[in-house]
Amino acid sequence: MTEIKILNWDMQLIDDFDYGNFTGMPPIEDDYSPCVIDTETLNKHVVVVIYIMVFLLSLLGNSLVMMVILYSRASRSVTDVYLLNLAIADLLFALILPIWAVSKEKGWIFGTLICKVTSLVKEVNFYSGILLLACISMDRYLAIVHATRTLTQKRHLVKFICLSVWGFSLILSLPFFIFRQAYTPNNSSLVCYEVLGNNTAKWRMVLRILPHTFGFVLPLLVMLFCYGFTLCTLFKAHMGQKHRAMRVIFAVVLVFLLCWLPYNLVLVADTLMRIHVIEETCDRRNDIDRALDATEILGFLHSCLNPLIYAFIGQNFRNGFLKILATRGLVSQEFLARHRFTSYSSSSITVPSNL
Questions:
Q1: Which residues does residue 181 pair with via DSSP β-bridges, in sequence order?
Q2: d(CA 169, CA 60)
Q3: Which residues cross the membrane (predicted)?
């Protein structure tokens, strides 16, 4: 009987993150574990309200961002193309949030296909986001530090890069599509999580370490390198206006890190505990579960924050939006002239390609 309890405890520790954190695992009986596992780490009604608010804000904000960028075709910069793809990724993610909100309240009731698709979209959103930001950092690095237009002048190359980002993000996310399914663990209610067979612990570590190495750590190092040298160049050259024009980009990167870095740090701690680098205790297990829940919600908030950055910091975005309203007759040309903001660039949202 003791051996059965220990085995169930090990399996619970393995599966905790995957369907206890994001997919709403039902409560587990006390006799499955020597510890009391706190399965309700956050108030599910509060989480549902947050999901719905993020859904509405993201749907409205990212739709406006896409409209402004697509409308400003003549002045669209390479950075705008990357930001357009970032808005598309956030919009797609927002569309699946109502499904996760319902699952938080009622459990997983949507079947295996929806489980696979929503898990895939969530992962693709995360990886495409940081990879696109890494591409922006490299573009700004080449344009400012090396004063080259090679990349920015070849629009077909930029399209190829964006397609490559989407393809690589899809590859990193495929394991979630392949292995996730609607499943009933321990005769409990239906959940959405990975089913990996006998080597569950081994494969979960592989599926966790490899994607976060190539889809988070490496792009983050690229951004730190590129923006470090970019900032040094701007300050040394005393490029006042160009420095101000970079505010939106720096704000976008900073908000992404503030939203997703805590989650990934907690995930690293969880991984280290599972491979016994960090001693595992009942209190630590519950603390990490609560931290995963809280930081993941913080990560979800990211999908609706970029449009707010553009609206409050991006002068060109506001100019582009007012111009669209004036073209549609919703505001007068006099109003547009009075409220048009001084622009630091020709780009619809951020900085020009020839910066």
A1: 193
A2: 25
A3: 48-70, 82-101, 126-145, 157-179, 213-235, 247-266
| pTM greater than 0.90 | no
pLDDT digits (tens, 9 = 90+) for 196-228: 766 666 677 777 787 778 888 899 899 989 988
Let me know: does 322 contact 340? Beta carbons within 8 Å. Answer: yes
**CATH code: domain of residue 236:** 1.20.1070.10
Both tokens of 175, joined, read 């394991």
Asked if residue 344 is part of any domain, the answer here is no
Q: Tell me which DSSP letter residue 181 carries.
A: E
- Residues 319-338 have pLDDT tens digits of 776 777 767 666 666 665 66
Domain holding 142, by residue range, is 2-339
Measured CA to CA, the distance from residue 251 to residue 140 in angstroms comes to: 14
Residue 355 lies in a domain: no
Bridge partners of residue 183, in order along the sequence? 191
Q: What angle is formed at CA 82 by the lines to CA 77 and CA 87, rounded to 5 degrees?
A: 120
Spatial distance between the Cα atoms of 60 and 304, rounded to a whole number of angstroms: 9
Q: What is the chain's length?
A: 355
Structure tokens at 215: 């889809």
The answer for residues whose C-beta is within 8 angstroms of residue 215's C-beta and 6 or more apart is 126, 127, 130, 131, 169, 172
Residues linked to residue 182 through DSSP beta bridges, in sequence order: 192
Helix (H) or strand (E) holding 66: helix 44-71
Number of domains in the chain: 1
Contact between 198 and 117 (Cβ < 8 Å): no
